[in-house]
Design brief:
High-Potential Iron-Sulfur Protein, Chain A; single chain; mainly alpha; elongated
Length: about 110
């Protein structure tokens, strides 16, 4: 069994208690993130486009005309938002009407 000195235990307890009451900075909002550019190297490698209607459904791995970021399982955020966070492009927002080759249907 580990023995912690009483003084060290009290110091750690005080820090833990203070952490419960102190709120560090403001939370980052999705609207504060930059929009993903079609020229972004990662975006290009995933064939990302802002407008899914410009992509031929026959060229997609899962051919379907209704594939877009707003109905992808990897996109987060509120339905109806024009730009939303995506797990594939962390720190950037994708267009809800966009598309990339990693599109996956929502369950």
């Amino acid at each position: 069994m580990s023995k912690i000195a009483r003084r060290k235990f009290i110091q750690l307890s005080a820090v833990a208690a203070a952490g419960c009451f102190v709120r560090p900075g403001a939370d980052a909002q999705a609207q504060d993130m930059p929009h993903l550019s079609e020229d972004d190297p990662v975006g290009k490698s995933m064939k990302y486009t802002h407008d899914s209607s410009t992509v031929d459904p026959a060229t997609r791995a899962n051919p379907a005309a209704d594939q877009r970021c707003s109905n992808c399982a990897l996109v987060q955020g509120a339905d109806g938002d024009a730009w939303r966070p995506c797990q594939i492009f962390p720190g950037k927002l994708v267009n809800a009407n966009g598309w990339c080759s990693v599109w996956a249907p929502k369950a």
